[in-house]
Design brief:
By secondary structure, the protein is an alpha+beta fold. It contains 14 helices and seven strands.
């Protein structure tokens, strides 16, 4: 490793003098992030995400990593190099120096997936104290899809007729309206709100404040921006990603490179790639690396390590194509 990549040089006497002179601590401000505070980004049919506040930015990550050697002593290029170094080597603590606070409104089923990320501070709208609004999520006809044949948790296009999708959307609306009617009937009759709420389905909307540091926010985005994440939850992740870019653009770019767009390879998969590089055909390489693509009866396997490896190859190809296109446009 070169000296320029260790980032452990001792502060010079000039750095020390500058730090001693800087007695006033000021809040880090990012103009683009300031412009986004309070602006609701619409998500789904009745939801939104908005930045409430933030603390820190790219400079805060650099400051933490350099233990305040002086914000004016390094160039933007050096800061970007340090941030990229930290992220690709999993030095995550400096990223915890940046915090983001959001307000979000989402269907209850989205919230229940979201809350699985337990490394955040959350305060949710309480249906014990307040009346639930009559807003509920209805999927579009495009998003009303059938069960995936390759992913037990997912959906896929093409296995439900248009008429069937329209029929089910209509029934969801009817049942949701009936549920809310019963809910209000119970409320008006004096039934406790904490009991009346149990008749409402999980497509009704809830709302919360969600605060997390940048390291844990990146973890959330890495999982929820993934194509395998539920589409509805992914829309909130997309909105959040756009906000994070405004707060810490250099850190987000590094996250995109080293986490979001990276591909994790097992020992077997690395063996297969080595074989492919050396001229072995992909199907044969999978066989030699013990990444099966077919069953004993020669029928294709839809799930498992073999098909997942092929999907990773396609992702690598897609990522490389995107980089080439971007390079071509920048020339």
């Amino acid at each position: 490793m070169s000296n320029s990549e260790t980032y452990r040089n001792k502060p010079s006497s000039e750095d020390k003098a500058e730090n001693k002179a800087e007695s006033k601590m000021e809040r880090v401000e990012v103009a683009r992030a300031n412009d986004m505070i309070g602006k609701q980004i619409p998500v789904l049919d009745h939801g939104f995400l908005a930045l409430v506040d933030y603390m820190g930015s790219d400079s805060s990550i650099v400051q933490a990593a350099r233990v305040s050697y002086g914000s004016g002593t390094k160039s933007v290029h050096d800061d970007a190099g340090l941030i990229r170094y930290l992220l690709r080597h999993d030095h995550t603590t400096p990223f915890e120096m940046v915090e983001l606070k959001f307000i979000a409104r989402m269907p209850i089923f989205v919230a229940r997936q979201w809350v699985r990320h337990r490394t955040a501070s959350i305060n949710e709208y309480s249906a014990r104290y307040s009346i639930v609004k009559d807003d509920y999520y209805l999927p579009s006809i495009e998003m009303m899809q059938g069960q995936s044949t390759s992913n037990k948790q997912g959906r896929e296009e093409g296995n439900l007729s248009k008429g069937m999708r329209e029929d089910f959307i209509g029934k969801i609306k009817e049942k949701s309206d009936d549920a809310y009617k019963l809910y209000m009937e119970m409320i008006n009759a004096g039934v406790a709100r904490e009991l009346a709420r149990m008749v409402l389905p999980v497509n009704f909307y809830t709302e919360w404040y969600w605060k997390s540091n940048l390291h844990n926010t990146f973890h959330f985005l890495a999982l929820r921006l993934d194509p395998h994440a539920q589409w509805e939850t992914r829309q909130y992740a997309v909105a959040m990603a756009n906000i994070v870019k405004s707060v810490a653009p250099i850190a987000y770019s590094a996250f995109d490179d080293f986490m979001l767009s990276s591909v994790k390879l097992s020992k077997k998969e690395q063996h297969a790639i080595d074989l492919i590089i050396n001229g072995v055909e992909i199907t044969e390489a999978c066989k030699m690396a013990k990444l099966p693509l077919r069953r004993d009866d020669n029928k294709p396997i839809k799930t498992g390590e073999g098909p997942e490896f092929l999907a990773k190859l396609e992702r690598i190809k897609s990522n490389a194509s995107g980089i080439s296109k971007a390079d071509g446009e920048s020339i």
